[in-house]
Amino acid sequence: AQKVTQAQTEISVVEKEDVTLDCVYETRDTTYYLFWYKQPPSGELVFLIRRNSFDEQNEISGRYSWNFQKSTSSFNFTITASQVVDSAVYFCALSEADWGKLQFGAGTQVVVTP
Amino acid sequence: GAGVSQSPSNKVTEKGKDVELRCDPISGHTALYWYRQSLGQGLEFLIYFQGNSAPDKSGLPSDRFSAERTGGSVSTLTIQRTQQEDSAVYLCASSSRTPETQYFGPGTRLLVL
């Protein structure tokens, strides 16, 4: 069963628009970790953010912000004032095991045009 | 400092041949992971190492796949008698401990003809 669902396959925006990526996860564990990774056309997975299940505080880091809501099992990610360099596939991932095995969603392709 | 490195970056092989993929984790990282990314299956976990031992091999798709890690550092993923469905990008990641953030290498793109 898919534990991480990214319902959006592709999102296209014009530069400077905001982009919100949805992620819904499923777990019975009380302690777990959620991640967002970016995969640009070069192919390398780049770590963006991580949240622990016991910390629901939402933060902003530069142009990135996230909304973690345990009540709805969602971990959404927003890019503010998008730029062309933000064009990439974005993956949401869940880690339940103590040793950190990542379970990825299918990814959302973000296309930012000038 | 240096990130995770993988070699080769690209590998083309013929069906039935064996291939070895190498991963050099970030220095000092004790945990090492292998994942596979293919069009049909997305990103899949293969195997996890803590030091030189592999507590979880549950993601290896068949007994043609094996991996080892020596000296708590370099890891090699071996695929024997390759099949066309093995074509994918093989990604390696490491973390300083578990369950810390995993940092990924650039991957090895494997094409089996």
Share in helix of chain B? under 10%
* Main β-sheet description of chain A: 6 strands, mixed
> Which outline of chain B best applies?
globular
Task: Kindly provide the radius of gyration of chain A, computed on alpha-carbon positions and rounded to a whole number of angstroms.
Answer: 14 Å
Q: What's the count of strands of chain B? A: 11
Uncertain runs of chain B: none
Strand content of chain A: over 45%
Oligomer: heterodimer
Structural class by secondary-structure content of chain B: mainly beta
The SSE order of chain B reads: EEEEEEEEEEE
Helix and strand succession of chain A?
A: EEEEEEEEEEEE
Portion of residues in beta strands of chain B equals over 45%
Instruction: Please give the share of residues in helix of chain A.
Output: under 10%
Mean pLDDT figure of chain B: 93
How is the topology of this model organized?
The complex is a heterodimer of chains A (about 110) and B (about 110).
Chain A: E1 4-5, E2 10-14, E3 19-21, E4 24-25, E5 33-39, E6 46-52, E7 60-61, E8 64-69, E9 74-79, E10 88-95, E11 102-104, E12 108-113
Parallel strand pairs in A: 2-12
Antiparallel strand pairs in A: 1-4, 3-9, 5-6, 5-10, 7-8, 8-9, 10-11, 10-12
Chain B: E1 5-7, E2 10-13, E3 19-24, E4 31-38, E5 42-50, E6 53-56, E7 65-69, E8 75-79, E9 88-95, E10 103-104, E11 108-112
Parallel strand pairs in B: 2-11
Antiparallel strand pairs in B: 1-3, 3-8, 4-5, 4-9, 5-6, 7-8, 9-10, 9-11
Highlighted features:
heterodimer, A: 114 residues, mainly beta, 6-stranded mixed sheet, 4-stranded antiparallel sheet, 12 strands, 0% helix, B: 113 residues, 7-stranded mixed sheet, globular
